[in-house]
Design brief:
Helix content is 25%, strand content 31%. The chain has 248 residues and is an alpha+beta fold.
């Protein structure tokens, strides 16, 4: 997975403001082997997409970031990194519970509740990717959420069992490395197919909201750029970037 065959490092922190920020700071100072991980028991300022925050009780959940160097990928195909990360979380959680799906672009849901969020930050060099920092928060053993987030859930809440976070992390990393190898070997069609089959609410028409109001539509496709294409009952198609449309 990395050219110099260095084993990925696992860096464990009791607390940090954000594992993504910490990992990006490290990469700026020293070369880190591809696949290296920063994992924290507590994040004081965990970040989500577009300024969102991530609530997590200390020592209860998995909060970590992974570094990849996908310099073989052109910038306009960076959504593949998001797809393999989301699929790797889904496939890991499938080992413990059913009804796990991927809500576009990369939230992980159990039924209608969010069990995992991620923040992927890509750095470019020219027209290609240089590095991807994949920040992931998976709710594992937390029993109560107080932040006012609309629909969080944890593995422990679903099953009434507690879990070994290290074991789940190991399972995830194996799946991510396997998925990344598939990406290196140009198995993009398999990745896109698996992503489409994993999508939340991909089976019928549902209510959506954009800047023009609410409407009913079904998921027509996800473009290689990551744009969502919805189809209305009339056959009209609408194309959206992230945050331009939401499920009602």
């Amino acid at each position: 997975m990395n050219e110099e065959n260095e084993a990925p490092r696992i860096i464990r922190l009791a607390e940090t403001n954000s594992t993504n920020s910490y990992l990006r700071g490290l990469v700026g100072k020293e070369p880190l082997p591809e696949g290296s991980v920063v994992i924290a028991d507590f994040q004081s300022a965990g970040r989500g997409q577009v300024g969102n925050t991530w609530e997590s009780e200390e020592g209860k959940n998995l909060m970590f970031s992974v570094i990849l160097y996908p310099d073989f990928l052109p910038a306009n195909r960076q959504f593949l990194i998001s797809q393999i990360a989301a699929l790797s979380v889904k496939e890991t959680l499938n080992e413990y519970v059913s009804d796990i799906t991927v809500k576009w672009p990369n939230d992980i849901y159990w039924r209608d509740r969010k069990i995992c969020g991620m923040l992927i930050e890509n750095d470019l060099t020219g027209h290609s990717l240089y590095c991807s920092v994949i920040g992931i928060g998976i709710n594992i053993n937390q029993q109560e959420f107080r932040s006012g987030a609309p629909n969080p859930v944890s593995l422990a809440q679903i099953t009434n069992c507690e879990y070994d976070r290290e074991e789940i992390l190991r399972h995830f990393l194996k799946r991510l490395y396997d998925r990344y190898l598939g990406l290196i070997l140009e198995h993009e069609a398999d990745i896109r197919r698996d992503y489409m089959s994993a999508l939340y609410r991909s089976d019928s028409f549902y209510r959506y909201r954009d800047d023009q109001g609410t409407f009913e539509a079904c998921i027509k496709e996800i473009e290689p750029t990551g744009h969502l294409v919805l189809e209305l009952p009339t056959g009209e198609q609408r194309r959206y970037a992230f945050k331009e449309v939401s499920i009602v």
